[in-house]
From TrEMBL:
<dbReference type="GO" id="GO:0006506">
    <property type="term" value="P:GPI anchor biosynthetic process"/>
</dbReference>
<keyword id="KW-0732">Signal</keyword>
<dbReference type="Pfam" id="PF02585">
    <property type="entry name" value="PIG-L"/>
</dbReference>
<dbReference type="InterPro" id="IPR024078">
    <property type="entry name" value="LmbE-like_dom_sf"/>
</dbReference>
<feature type="signal peptide">
    <location>
        <begin position="1"/>
        <end position="18"/>
    </location>
</feature>
<dbReference type="InterPro" id="IPR003737">
    <property type="entry name" value="GlcNAc_PI_deacetylase-related"/>
</dbReference>
<dbReference type="GO" id="GO:0005783">
    <property type="term" value="C:endoplasmic reticulum"/>
</dbReference>
<comment type="similarity">
    <text>Belongs to the PIGL family.</text>
</comment>
<dbReference type="GO" id="GO:0000225">
    <property type="term" value="F:N-acetylglucosaminylphosphatidylinositol deacetylase activity"/>
</dbReference>
<dbReference type="GO" id="GO:0016020">
    <property type="term" value="C:membrane"/>
</dbReference>
<protein>
    <recommendedName>
        <fullName>N-acetylglucosaminylphosphatidylinositol deacetylase</fullName>
        <ecNumber>3.5.1.89</ecNumber>
    </recommendedName>
</protein>
Length: 267
């Protein structure tokens, strides 16, 4: 019964209500220069593919990926740089907007917290250069709990706090382990905070959502990948050959983050 409910919700949210502003706020839908900030190559596919692929068919939307390290902890940095370039190509991200950094203060290390001031300055630079009007990144749990992921979140938050006129920032919500690997079944639980919005979306037209310049539904978002988008995400992860293993193959099926992202607005 739970699986049936999950599949019904998936069909509803991935197809019928995929662009309803009560689930995908106009703050997101109106953005034209979108930036995803991650820590390592492959984060963009393993965690954020429903987000970074949203709007990929819209020629008016330019998406960018900023990866703060090469993921060189095991000495594979140069290989992973090539892999992220191919992943960006699979995701439809232009080469000029697919940036992987090699910064001395931002080296891949599961035991080292990255300097937040360095992250904020880097983010500010690319926001200005690319005229970014929407940012996506990790929340303070970092999805997997990786210390570098959490530092990225803290650095982006510091950027918002210290710089004026920053674009809206949405963070991908972390969940505990069982939910993380419950695939589409977790869509039932994830939909609960959105239940009233889903009911309204089913039974009423959305009309004008911006009230006095404010988005009344802009506090959170639920992005669900249709089947075609899910396959693009799998193909993109397939470019990360150095990271392929039997458990990653399983991850592509059972991880909720391959199928849907729920995000909340940080600023």
């Amino acid at each position: 019964m739970l699986l049936s409910a999950a599949l019904w919700l998936y069909a509803l949210l991935a197809y019928w209500l995929a662009e309803d502003p009560r689930l995908v706020p106009e703050t997101i839908q109106r953005a034209r220069n979108v930036l995803l900030v991650t820590a390592h190559p492959d984060d963009e596919t393993l965690f954020f593919s429903p987000t970074i692929l949203h709007g990929h068919d819209n020629p008016d939307v330019t998406r960018a990926l900023l990866v703060l390290s090469t993921g060189d902890y095991n000495g594979l940095g140069e290989i992973r740089k090539g892999e992220i370039e191919r992943s960006c190509a699979a995701l439809g991200i232009l080469p000029a907007r697919c940036v992987v950094l090699e910064h001395g203060a931002l080296q891949d290390n599961p035991k080292k917290w990255w300097r937040e001031d360095v992250i904020q300055d880097i983010v500010a630079h690319y926001v200005h250069m690319w005229k970014v009007d929407l940012i996506f990144t990790f929340d303070d749990g970092g999805i997997s709990g990786h210390i570098n992921h959490r530092a990225v979140s803290a650095g982006v938050v510091q950027y918002v706090e210290n710089f004026p006129h920053t674009p809206p920032v949405y963070a991908l919500q972390s969940t505990f382990l069982l939910r993380k690997y419950s695939s589409l079944i977790d869509l039932v639980l994830t939909s609960v905070p959105f239940s009233w919005r889903i009911v309204k979306a089913v039974f009423t037209s959305h009309g004008k959502q911006l009230v006095g310049g404010q988005d009344p539904y802009g506090d959170k978002a639920l992005l669900v990948s249709p089947w075609r988008t899910y396959l693009i995400a799998r193909a993109a992860f397939g470019q990360h050959a150095s990271q392929y293993s039997w458990d990653r193959v399983l991850y592509l099926v059972v991880s909720r983050y391959m199928w849907f992202n729920n995000l909340y607005r940080v600023a």
